[in-house]
Design a protein that fits this description.
Number of helices: 11
CATH topology of the largest domain: Peroxisomal Thiolase, Chain A, domain 1
Strand order of the largest sheet: 1-7-6-4-5
Strand content: 15-25%
Bound molecules: oxa(dethia)-CoA
Structural class: alpha/beta
Largest sheet: 5 strands, mixed
Shape: globular
Order of helices and strands: EEHHEHEHEHEHEEEHEHEHHHEE
Helix content: 25-40%
Radius of gyration: 19 Å
CATH architecture of the largest domain: 3-Layer(aba) Sandwich
Length: 328
Amino acid sequence: MAQNVKILSTGRYVPDRVLTNYDLEKMVDTSDEWITQRTGIKERRIVDGTTSTTDLAVRAAKNAMDKAGILPDDIDLVIVATVTPEMFFPSTACLVQKELKLKNAFAFDISAACSGFIYAMAIATHFIQNGFCKNALVIGAEALSRITNWSDRSTCVLFGDGAGAAILSSGDEQGILGFELGSDGENGLLLYCHAFGLSDVTYSQVKENPNFRKIYMEGNEVYKFAVKIMPYAVEKVLEKVGLSSSDIDVFIPHQANIRIIESAAKRLKIPMEKVFVNLHKYGNTSAASIPIALDEAVEEGRIKKGDKVVLVGFGGGLTWASTVIKWV
Ligand code: UT7
């Protein structure tokens, strides 16, 4: 029989260093006014030279484990969603396993950019439902500043670093009600970052251009995709679980741009009072954005027992993902 799955606890960690819009004014041709009006972002957190994605992930995970009061031996699965691993292998998840001494777990990373945390939740949920695992540590962690092109004003003002985590466990009551996941590889090159340069051509491009291995984005096209796909992904998942948007108590969208969030909320007829927004403090932290927001929403008392919470993300791939959670 399928096991029920719930969120046992959440956690987060962001680096101390704050980079404000005013700091960016000194780096590229931009202004606090432009960034605030077009994105809603006021500041973002940036790792120092010695902090890795693994360090961020470990601290967020530890925070979630402490809140749940769970022992390292009881975690049997670790999944890290990231597009900024410090190594190609071992996976960030295996590095987290080592740091936190999660010796009974199997661990791996997934790459689904800003949808990564919900993709990872879906994978963990299915393992738990099948009885293969009991307690999964799911983490979204990014040091995006390492792949940001700091001379491109159209992207460098958007991103930040951080990590969020959740422990998913089998439980008496069904907490995680359903998922909608999708991707569109056809349009993947609207938003990308090169890894290896395997051909001679790529090799010479890397040598000539230090920003070759940095984020590239066609912002307007991604914007158009986002405002369409967010409401679509939410409507689909609500339909699957037999609910409507008026049943949503708390809406936690990927924190990319306040205009995208407001447009999605409007199309879904969700009042902004039900929408959790923290992008003014952190910018877009890709896979970390949704779990950081979820943890802050819990901490601020925005989510109460019995509430229906919807998470939705979109991003590189292109990918999208949504889930409905009953807070039990
Ligand atoms: O999670 C990953 C998913 N990515 C996203 O969610 C990003 C989706 N896209 C967006 O959020 C928006 O497209 C942006 C915030 C990236 C850009 O906003 P926009 O309203 O679409 O601006 P735009 O690209 O149409 O640019 C408008 C103007 C341009 O100048 P001209 O051609 O009108 O003279 C840009 O060169 O703004 C200029 N511009 C800037 N000006 C000051 C672009 N970036 C900046 C900047 N500061 N940082």
